[in-house]
């Protein structure tokens, strides 16, 4: 069964010097502009919700128009573009993919497409267009290609054809303006994909690609002044509660929000790092224990791999020890890790500086980190239990 979905389309077109040739009327680049205008208007007629963006590439790629469904915004951006430089097809593809990455992060259920229009000779590329094609293929982006007057190039040797084949797109060759307009207008039609293909497209599972495109959670201390104001507007100035567990204190490390709290880099929703890790482990669409979608805005996010180590230690501890056990083992840490960089000592509430003291202790029950000196002073005062979880300390 075929299914139509909303589409985001980026048209990446060549504006190198070779596109100034007059074998198209009045020249190649003006013919391309005319064809793009016809495409945009036809796309709007088919489904006004579909969006189009423009990327012009020569020696480098640049965004001429962001994704929009307003023809009156996108068409005027074509007029100032002039032909110059060499053909950097790899750069054009890279910029086009970057435009679509955030949309994939936000919502993977659309059909994402790139249309490349070029004379097919990427002599000026410093970015390998085939590497970009492989990346697009992993991200389930369809690339349709149009070769402008590829005279003397065998079909099986066309770079543009190879790009289209690898990404399940369409390849066309045109030799005059009217044919170019007709081909591009025909590409305005939605891609008919089966339900099973839609499911595969909506679930990007390649681990490397997910790691690249997923956004980072950020700590409260890392927020800029503007971000802090936005966070205060969204969650208020009172105690911040995690949107996953709806608690101020983390249910894994039992620390307050400032200890392991993080914010979504897109909507600024608050969540405990350990809650985010648990959410990621139970997110089957991504099929990656470190990748998940924000429960509020569905933005694609990632958690540090080291977070799962503490959770596994906590799980092993609660599994191995009898329920009545009231002790916890403190492990000496002598190497700085990503997790400890974001931790604060429960005794002094300060961060860790391994250049000053290359020692720390980890409570294997709750996952809290202590400065070595703070723990020594804590024990010297006769405090024999972990300050966070309350278990009796065994060294």
Task: Describe the structure in your own words.
Strand 5, helix 4 and strand 6 form a beta-alpha-beta unit. This protein is elongated. Helices cover 34% and strands 19% of the residues. The chain is an alpha/beta fold and 395 residues long. Strands 4-3-2-5-6-7 form a six-stranded mixed β-sheet, with helices on both faces. Strands 16-15-14-17 form a four-stranded mixed β-sheet. A three-stranded mixed β-sheet has the order 9-13-12, with helices on both faces. About 3% of the residues have low confidence. 41% of the residues are buried.
Strand content: 15-25%
| Radius of gyration (Å) | 27 Å
Largest sheet: 6 strands, mixed
In which order are the strands of the major sheet placed? 4-3-2-5-6-7
Anisotropy-based shape = elongated
Discrete helix count: 14
Structural class comes to alpha/beta
Annotated CATH topology of the largest domain: Rossmann fold
Detail the poorly predicted runs.
Answer: 316-325
Arithmetic mean of pLDDT: 80
User: How much helix is in the residues?
Assistant: 25-40%
Span from first to last CA?
63 Å
CATH superfamily of the largest domain: von Willebrand factor, type A domain
* CATH level-two architecture of the largest domain: 3-Layer(aba) Sandwich
The domain tally reads 3
Main attributes?
395 residues, alpha/beta, 17 strands, Rossmann fold, single chain, Herpes Virus-1, 3 domains, 4-stranded mixed beta sheet, 34% helix
Record the SSE blueprint.
Blueprint: E1 2-3, E2 7-14, H1 28-46, E3 51-57, E4 61-68, H2 71-74, H3 89-106, E5 111-118, H4 129-138, E6 142-148, H5 159-166, E7 171-174, H6 177-186, E8 193-194, H7 195-202, H8 207-213, E9 215-216, H9 225-235, H10 257-260, E10 261-263, E11 270-272, H11 273-281, E12 291-293, E13 300-302, H12 306-320, E14 327-333, H13 338-341, E15 360-363, E16 369-371, H14 372-380, E17 392-394
Parallel strand pairs: 2-3, 2-5, 5-6, 6-7, 9-13, 14-17
Antiparallel strand pairs: 1-8, 3-4, 10-11, 12-13, 14-15, 15-16
Helix pairs in contact: 1-6, 3-4
């Amino acid at each position: 069964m075929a299914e139509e979905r909303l589409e985001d389309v980026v048209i990446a077109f060549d504006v190198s010097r070779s596109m100034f040739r007059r074998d198209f009327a009045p020249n190649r680049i003006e013919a391309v502009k005319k064809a793009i205008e016809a495409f945009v208007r036809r796309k709007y007629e088919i489904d006004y919700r579909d969006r189009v963006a423009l990327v012009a590439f020569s020696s480098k790629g640049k965004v001429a128009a962001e994704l929009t469904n307003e023809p009156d915004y996108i068409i005027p951006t074509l007029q100032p573009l002039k032909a110059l430089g060499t053909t950097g097809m790899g750069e054009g593809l890279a910029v086009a993919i970057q435009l679509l990455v955030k949309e994939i992060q936000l919502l993977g259920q659309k059909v994402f497409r790139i249309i490349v229009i070029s004379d097919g000779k990427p002599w000026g590329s410093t970015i390998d267009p085939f590497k970009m094609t492989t990346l697009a293929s992993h991200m389930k982006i369809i690339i349709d290609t149009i070769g402008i007057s590829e005279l003397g190039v065998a079909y099986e040797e066309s770079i543009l054809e190879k790009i289209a084949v690898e990404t399940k797109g369409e390849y066309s060759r045109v030799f005059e303006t009217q044919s170019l307009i007709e081909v591009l207008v025909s590409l305005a039609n939605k891609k008919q994909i089966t339900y099973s293909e839609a499911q595969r497209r909506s679930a990007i599972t390649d681990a490397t690609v997910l790691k690249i495109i997923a956004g980072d959670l950020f700590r409260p201390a890392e927020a800029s002044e503007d971000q802090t104001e936005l966070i205060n507007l969204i969650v208020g100035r009172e105690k911040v509660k995690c949107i996953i567990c709806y608690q101020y204190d983390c249910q894994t490390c039992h620390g307050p929000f400032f200890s392991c709290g993080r914010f979504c880099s897109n909507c600024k929703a608050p969540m405990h790092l350990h809650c985010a890790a648990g959410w990621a482990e139970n997110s089957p669409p991504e099929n990656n224990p470190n990748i998940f979608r924000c429960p509020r805005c569905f933005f694609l996010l990632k958690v540090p791999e080291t977070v799962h180590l503490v959770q596994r230690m906590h799980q092993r501890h609660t599994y191995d020890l009898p329920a009545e056990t009231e002790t916890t083992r403190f492990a000496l840490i002598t190497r700085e890790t990503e997790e400890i960089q974001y931790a604060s000592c429960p005794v002094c509430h300060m961060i860790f500086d391994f250049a000053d003291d290359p020692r720390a202790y980890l409570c294997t029950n709750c996952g809290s980190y202590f400065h070595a000196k703070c723990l020594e002073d804590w024990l010297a005062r006769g405090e024999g239990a972990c300050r966070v979880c309350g278990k009796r300390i065994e060294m």
